[in-house]
Amino acid sequence: MASEESWWQTAVVYQVYIRSFADGNGDGIGDIAGLRSKLPYLARLGVDAIWINPWYPSPMADAGYDVADYRDIEPAYGTLDEAQALIAEAHDLGIRVILDIVPNHTSDQHAWFRSALRDEPGARERYLFRPGRGDGGELPPNNWQSVFGGPAWTRVDAGPLEGAWYLHLFAPGQPDLNWEHAQVRAEFEDILAFWFDRGVDGFRIDVAHGLVKAVGLPDEAADDGSAHAMLQSQSRHPAWDQDGVHEIYRGWRAVADRYAPERIFIAEAWVPSNERLARYLRADELHTAFQFDFLRSPWRAETLREVIDDAIVSAASVGAPPTWVLSNHDVTRTVTRFSRSQPEHLVDTDWERGRWSGEEPDHGLGRRRARAAALVQLALPGTAYVYQGEELALEEIEDLPDETRQDPTWAQSGFTDVGRDGCRIPLPWHDSGATYGFSTGSGASTWLPQPDHWGEHSVETQDADAASTLNLYRAALELRPSLWRGAGEVTWLQVTPDVAAFTRGAAQCWVNTGQAAVALPPGAVVALASAPGVDTELPPDTAVWLRAT
Ligand code: BGC
């Protein structure tokens, strides 16, 4: 076990969706050059680390989560030398670098899959090829559905494997690997070492709960094999969260533990309960795992208290820090989630955008709540992830023209699910200009279109406004170490049902999700508030940090 002081136990990690962060060569696609140029921005923001979404060569069937070569850099993003320079420059600024590893599947353009399709000796066993059902094998081998919609199987239509089906829990361009195969296990341990040797501080593990499938790939018992249910839900599914996956992570932990300074893992694991999540965090497995119930919580004090307590208790049961996340590149942006009337239950799925409410969003309301939620997130014990653009309070762009949509979800769902493009719009850096400063030089357009009002939310505009969300985040990250680091356990205060208020050490965090202002404790000193003018009362949709006098 790591010592109490380890950086990753209290870190604030900034998620860089590289394609949309900053473009250094004017082609409308974010890249390493753009990211390097903005490292001073991230240092000033005050983050401890960055997590970079996949930057490996990829045909982009799923925005880089279809990896063709795990030991190189996508040419549109730069080169291995530039990656190396980025790691060094980030370290010089005190920022650690976490990469995204995609072990559940490769690209269909990966050398292994290509040799499998050529039926080279030993190649097809690394994937999950199966004969079809039905007289002519014309039906998929089981009833599993892809997370993006449609069957999780595609039939090979030519070559030596013609007629066989292969499993892809995501897009057809993302064939699932066979993790029962010793070569697959050895290969990924070697890939980890390749990047650790280059100074990388850790990995976010994509679909960490998916690698091992139930023996025999049985049909899913539930009605339609729906993969959406698999990601977030309460039920068990033969493709997800199988006990055999833990042995893989014990092997990965042994690789990480060979290195100093410490190298760490963060799991993306959508599992049915926090008890199941804690299994990934046992002492000889992974260091941290995203707490998605916090992200799924509606704007209700009672639910917030419940998800916070449950996350803390279950992480503590295995000695791990809880890991708080409000949004990422797969879910509706926080501002927009909070800009409509709130459900009673955890938000069911963000993978089906635009369906959870037909109501017009009130972005002003959503922004006030998102700012307040950020103060709650950053006051909690453990680690916090901030998705790029959250510090600008960007909203989801829900009205992208259909012809511009890139997420495979759109086509695979038969054009019924708009997918995740709306939270991936290139960032606005300047208040005006063709790409709002996203692209340098003559860049005139971006890979996803930016809306006309994007400049209002730009870094330039918010820099100049003391009350902006950007400056709120800066202030919060500056205060966080002195107010909250090492401050100890969360103890709830009884205020009203609509207020979640807790002490940690000498400091308090209060959030009001109700409709009436509440009195703050007499003599309390406001260290930071999510809205202007908070003094003796906490208005609705506002959070505050208090310190002892
Ligand atoms: C990533 C997604 C990706 C999927 C398949 C995830 O959970 O975060 O963006 O589409 O894995 O790799």
Automatic annotation (TrEMBL):
EC number of the protein: 3.2.1.20
The entry's keywords: Glycoprotein, Glycosidase, Hydrolase, Isomerase
Top-level taxon of origin: Bacteria
Molecular function via GO: alpha-1,4-glucosidase activity; alpha-amylase activity; isomerase activity
GO biological process, one term: oligosaccharide catabolic process
SMART domains given in the database record: Aamy
Alphabetical list of InterPro entries matching this protein: GH, GH13_cat_dom, O16G_dom_2
Glycosyl hydrolase family 13 catalytic domain boundaries: 15-424
CDD domains: AmyAc_OligoGlu_TS (cd11332)
Protein family (similarity comment): Belongs to the glycosyl hydrolase 13 family.
PANTHER family: ALPHA-AMYLASE FAMILY MEMBER, NEUTRAL AND BASIC AMINO ACID TRANSPORT PROTEIN RBAT
Protein name: Alpha-glucosidase
Organism this protein belongs to: Mycolicibacterium iranicum (Mycobacterium iranicum)
